[in-house]
Amino acid sequence: MSTTTAVDDLAVRIHAIDWDGDLERTRSRVALMREYLRRSALWTRALGAKGWPFYDIAEFAAPSVRAADEVVEGVLGSPVVLEQYPTVGTSCVWALHMAAARDAGAPLPDLPDPFEPLIRMYERGGGFSLSTTGTIDIDAAGLHRGTLLTHLGEEPRAPEAEAGLDALDGTPTLTVDQSFASRTSSLSRGRAISVETVYLMARAKAHGGRGGGRSRLAEPTGVPTERHDKPQ
């Protein structure tokens, strides 16, 4: 039986992060940020909280439970964390507070951990920053933050398994039936069709014709005014 706590395990993960960045993992990192925005929206709705998307969710869910000061100071005082956009280091502390709430057995909504996608995103290539134009900047990608309502949903925005995340960053391998391959071949006569286009066409077919292959990372939605009201 393990004697470590969720806080201990998470602190080890945070200190092990390579913050230098990995441009070959941008797609999976964007997907993980989308998943964080979804989970944050679900928690915000369940708690009746304000502050979406980046705020101390545990302060609303279990306000009497906090991670130990020395653990928090160890993260915030790390030289490599200090080099990141301020919200990055702060979000690591919020994740530690959530882990402390779980360690304490605090009653929490039956929802997936809101900060796990962020920690995994950091582990796959560093942090992010927030622009003055309302985008979340991840490597060279700009993801529009949108609104809480646009991110609510039951379907995860990122694969759970590392292999699935790796697949997002690599060349997709698809099994295409013969009739579809024939139609694709006829479409390509006289002009080039990229591998990505074939992938998107096949994925749309696999999902009953539904889209989802937008090449843009931004969503055409407004940016809400952030509030960080503390619970009474």
Features:
single chain; 232 residues; mainly alpha; three-stranded antiparallel sheet; 11 helices
**Helix-strand sequence:** HHHHHHHEEEHHHH
**How much is the average pLDDT?**
81
Poorly predicted residue ranges: 171-228
**Helical coverage, percent range:** 40-55%
What topology, given as strand order, has the largest sheet? 1-2-3
Number of domains: 2
- Strand element count: 3
What would your notes on this structure say?
This protein is mainly alpha-helical and 232 residues long. The protein folds into two domains: 6-160, no CATH class; 166-206, no CATH class. It has helices at 6-15, 26-47, 57-61, 69-76, 79-82, 86-103, 116-123, 148-151, 162-169, 178-188, 195-206, and strands at 129-130, 135-138, 141-144. Strands 1-2-3 form a three-stranded antiparallel sheet. A hairpin with a 4-residue loop joins β1 and β2 (135-138). The protein is globular. 30% of the residues are buried. The model is unreliable at 171-228 (pLDDT under 50).
Q: Concise description?
A:
The protein is mainly alpha-helical. The protein contains 11 helices and 3 strands; from the N terminus they run αααααααβββαααα.
Question: Helices and strands in order, then pairings?
Answer:
Blueprint: H1 6-15, H2 26-47, H3 57-61, H4 69-76, H5 79-82, H6 86-103, H7 116-123, E1 129-130, E2 135-138, E3 141-144, H8 148-151, H9 162-169, H10 178-188, H11 195-206
Antiparallel strand pairs: 1-2, 2-3
